[in-house]
Specification:
Largest sheet of chain B: 2 strands, antiparallel
Radius of gyration of chain B: 19 Å
Strand order of the largest sheet of chain B: 1-4
Strand content of chain A: under 5%
Order of helices and strands of chain A: HHHHEEHHHHHHHHH
Shape of chain A: globular
Oligomer: heterodimer
Largest interface: A-B, 42 and 50 residues
Structural class of chain A: mainly alpha
Distance between the termini of chain B: 44 Å
Helix content of chain A: over 70%
Distance between the termini of chain A: 37 Å
Strand order of the largest sheet of chain A: 1-2
Structural class of chain B: mainly alpha
Number of strands of chain B: 4
Radius of gyration of chain A: 20 Å
Helix content of chain B: over 70%
Number of strands of chain A: 2
Largest sheet of chain A: 2 strands, antiparallel
Order of helices and strands of chain B: HHHHEEEHHHHEHHH
Number of helices of chain A: 13
Chain lengths: ~300, ~290
């Protein structure tokens, strides 16, 4: 059973990462910096619990705020550029963050053992969960509590006036601007919220893997973050979850029996999914269809 | 100190000329398709591994290896174009980018399946002494690479401005719909551009691996990132800009390595790029946004 709980943990954390890209994508911005915010969150939360001896909840709160602050600071200069230029600017930022942690040493001796991040070797022994006797299931429920919270928040956000504003900017910036929407404010706040979610996800990630290193936060993770909402569709937050389950559950775990051949099929299936459903699994017609099933059932009952 | 500075600049130019070649191919794809092809580098790596495989199993001359590298890169490029870019021609640029990333994983997996021991030796193009002027040295390969970069970007410029094919390409850049109405086979032109860019990438790949005399699967990511960076510095869609951007990137890296150590070199390169984009969003040599907006 622990295997499935472990898988659910991975899916939960990747859902947070995907959601952080989702809200930025709603405004039409493509950001490859989400893995960078995720890395910032992971290192901050890990250092707070291991080196400063904080409890997990305040540490996650701070890592989330840190992720948001970095995203906000990056948002102002980065959002001066559009489209593919933004992709590359955010890619550069994400790689810079990764290389920063590659060079980052900060060790403190605790109880005769040196703890803390050491450059290329990474940051070992982030053992808050095992030290406090959390079981895999409890960690999984803890993670999913945050995932559901983030999804509920974004779902409500989507339905409110703010969601309409975000989508208006994403559809057509010129039209949005001419009805009086402040483009910079909207884009930077979407980026900030995305950074907060990514920082939170990173903080959780650091604690369930117990060992983080710079190489985990490279362009691979950044593209995955972007791939989830794109594969799932931008119509609803549920698309992102569906895509994470598809990629992490079905492709990564389900194809494990293929051994070394897995990545070949993995790539082919993602390309196929993009070509068959260019607007994502849950595009507007699919959601309409699902809605009709539910309404039909209610009508029959 | 002064000599060190000059020597570093020369080393930077040597490195930068490989970036310049990579950037020329990248720019061609980006300028015409307005799509980022993350599989550009991995396709080059695939070509390089094809040549390495041939080198290990048969006797092959340098020219044959170069041709095999280019052919492998073109083949891989065609695969990428058919799967990632042809289906998303009207659709979303991000979908194409994500799909090209998925193929990147395929290329890496394919080469490690066939050739599992990661690092392979590659025959050097030239193993004589480097050029010397007094106490300064410059490797021969760097000169070849720089000459290739300049010749190819000049040749491309001539083709684009002077031939029927170039006219068709420019018509497609201007307006794919109008080009189609005028009787240009747009999908075919796009495929041809893609293959042309892949062959330039393949040539760049051959020159790079034969300079380094070894090849690893990391070559894919390295080529994509460096090509992308150089293209950005030069301003999107400009061929002379791509060459200049590559040289600037190389020189910057060489000097930052000298002053800050090899660990900080890449960090500085990315921070500079980010800063540059924030201050001059359309590259060093372009003031307006007219062409850069995608």
């Amino acid at each position: 059973m622990d295997f499935y709980f472990g898988l659910a943990q991975i899916i939960g954390v990747h859902t947070l990462l995907g959601l952080s890209a989702y809200i930025v994508l709603l405004t039409g911005q493509v950001s490859l910096a989400q893995a960078g915010f995720f890395a910032v969150g992971a290192y901050v939360a890990g250092m707070l619990t291991v080196l400063a001896g904080w409890a997990i909840l305040p540490a996650l709160a701070v890592s989330s705020l840190f992720g948001g602050a970095v995203a906000c600071a990056v948002g102002f200069p980065a959002l001066r550029v559009k489209g593919l230029m933004l992709v590359i600017a955010t890619l550069a930022f994400g790689e810079a963050v990764r290389l920063f942690f590659f060079n980052f040493d900060y060790q403190v001796a605790k109880g005769g053992v040196k703890l803390g991040p050491v450059g290329g070797e990474g940051f070992r022994q982030i053992r808050y969960f095992p030290e406090h006797g959390w079981t895999t299931m409890e960690v999984m429920l803890f993670i999913w509590g945050f995932v559901i919270l983030a999804m509920a928040l974004l779902w409500w956000f989507d339905r409110s006036r703010y969601g309409a504003v975000l989508r208006a900017v994403g559809e057509d910036e010129l039209a949005a601007q001419s009805v009086g929407i402040n483009l910079t404010a909207v884009k930077v706040s979407a980026m900030t919220v995305g950074g907060m979610i990514a920082g939170l996800g990173g903080g959780i990630y650091a604690h369930y893997t117990t060992h983080i290193e710079h190489a985990s936060f490279g362009i691979l993770l950044a593209t995955f973050a972007l791939a989830y909402p794109i594969l799932g569709g931008l119509e609803s937050v549920f698309g992102t979850v569906v895509a994470v389950v598809f990629v992490q559950g079905l492709l990564v775990e389900g194809l494990r029996f293929l051994g070394d051949w897995r990545n070949l099929l993995f790539g082919a299936l993602i390309v196929l999914a993009m070509n068959v459903r260019p607007k994502g699994f849950l595009d507007a017609p699919a959601l309409l269809w699902i809605g009709r099933i539910f309404r039909g059932r209610r009508g029959a009952a | 100190m002064f000599f060190d500075l000059i020597q570093n600049t020369l080393d930077g130019l040597a490195m930068g000329s490989s970036y310049a070649l990579l950037a020329v191919g990248f720019t061609l794809i980006f300028g015409v398709l307005r799509r980022v092809n993350l599989s550009y580098g991995p396709a080059i790596m695939f070509g390089g591994y094809c040549a390495t495989w041939v080198h290990l199993n048969f006797q092959a001359g340098l020219l044959a290896l170069a041709i095999i590298t280019i052919a492998g890169a073109v083949l891989a490029g065609a695969y990428v174009e058919r799967l990632c870019f042809a289906p998303h021609r009207q659709g979303s640029a991000i979908a194409a980018m994500v799909a090209s990333f998925a193929l990147w994983m395929q290329f890496e997996e394919a080469v490690t399946l066939v050739m599992p021991s990661h690092v392979y030796d590659f025959p050097a193009m030239y193993d004589g002494p480097p050029f010397e002027f007094g106490s300064l040295t410059l490797r021969m390969e760097a000169l070849v690479m720089l000459a290739c970069a300049v010749a190819i970007s000049y040749g491309l410029h001539r083709v684009l401005s002077g031939s029927r094919f170039g006219l068709a390409v420019r018509a497609v850049i201007d307006s794919p719909v109008a080009a189609q109405l005028a009787g240009i086979d747009v999908p075919r032109v796009l495929l041809q551009v893609f293959l042309l860019a892949s062959s330039i990438g393949g040539l760049a790949g051959y020159l790079i691996v034969s300079t380094h005399t070894q090849i690893t699967p990391m070559l894919g990511m390295w080529s994509t990132l460096k090509g992308l960076l150089a293209m950005m510095i030069g301003g999107l869609g400009s061929l002379p800009g791509a060459v200049a951007g590559g040289l600037v990137l190389g020189v910057l890296e060489a000097h930052s390595q000298w002053f800050l150590g090899p660990q900080s070199r890449d960090l500085l390169a990315f921070l500079l790029l980010f800063g540059l984009l924030a201050v001059r969003p359309y590259g060093l040599w372009r003031a307006s946004s007219a062409e850069a907006e995608a």
